[in-house]
Specification:
Layout (H helix, E strand, L loop, with lengths): L2 H4 L6 E3 L3 E4 L3 H13 L18 H17 L5 E10 L14 E11 L1 H4 L1 E8 L8 H16 L4 E7 L3 H10 L2 E10 L2 E11 H6 L6 E3 L11
Parallel strand pairs: 5-6
Antiparallel strand pairs: 1-2, 1-9, 2-3, 3-4, 4-5, 6-8, 7-8
Helix pairs in contact: 2-3, 5-6
Length: about 230
């Protein structure tokens, strides 16, 4: 029996001209873990509120592997986290011809609590160091925003980034997010400032530039609580 017959989310596909986002099976999850092991950011700074990248390559790989499996095991319509592996060169287009066709490059998350009531979700993501600086981060966030707004009927989507993480903040600005306040968090024993961001449906519509296609959503809708 195919995985998607048991867990329909394995059949969900979100594609852009260069990317395909989907819940990874075990083989793809091993590939995603390998990308994490190779590095996600400069080790001198920590861009995440939860420092999951500490501990070296083997620890990063195991954390990634366990996280995605945990999202499946703990999924409830009232509280869910969709962790999608991002493949570069597997979308509807041909990629940019640089030899990266079909390569797993990072992870894009979409999560919510009581989504059926609030119609509010949040995003989070990471991209392997070797794949940064080519607009992939913007494209994969645009893909999951389309899933949230067009596919699931979200009213707004939130995100957050350290104030000293200009790359993440630039992606949010490009996609239409508005500032939503600051919060101080403890990371590695130090106080860090996080900027919250919010994107409503009107701003999403006004800033859409990436063509996105969603397939396989119908059998998943009950799992999202919609």
């Amino acid at each position: 029996m195919a995985e998607e017959h048991i867990w329909p989310l394995y059949g969900l596909r979100v594609t852009t001209p260069r990317l395909e986002l989907r819940l990874p099976d075990l083989a793809a999850l091993a590939g995603l873990a390998a990308v994490a092991a190779d590095g996600v950011h400069d080790e001198a700074r920590m861009p995440f509120t939860v420092p999951w990248t500490d501990g070296g390559p083997e620890a990063r790989a195991r954390t990634t592997f366990q996280h995605v499996l945990g999202t499946v095991a703990n999924w409830r319509p009232e509280e869910w986290m969709l962790s999608l592996a991002v493949r570069y060169g597997s979308g509807d287009g041909d990629g940019d011809g640089d030899g990266d066709g079909g390569r797993i490059v990072g992870r894009q998350d979409l999560g919510a609590t009581d989504f059926a009531v609030t119609r509010e979700a949040e995003t989070g993501s990471w991209l392997g160091l070797a794949h940064q600086g080519r607009g992939i981060g913007t494209e994969m966030r645009a893909a999951v925003l389309h899933l949230a707004f067009a596919g699931l009927g979200a009213r707004c989507v939130t995100s957050a980034a350290m104030t000293d993480n200009p790359a993440s903040l630039a992606v949010s600005r490009k996609l239409g997010y508005a500032p939503d306040g600051l919060v101080t968090v403890a990371v590695r024993g130090e106080a860090r400032t996080v900027r919250r961001l919010r994107l409503d449906r009107a701003a999403w519509e006004a800033h859409r530039t990436v063509p996105v296609e969603v397939r396989g959503l119908a059998p998943c809708r009950a799992l999202f609580g919609v």
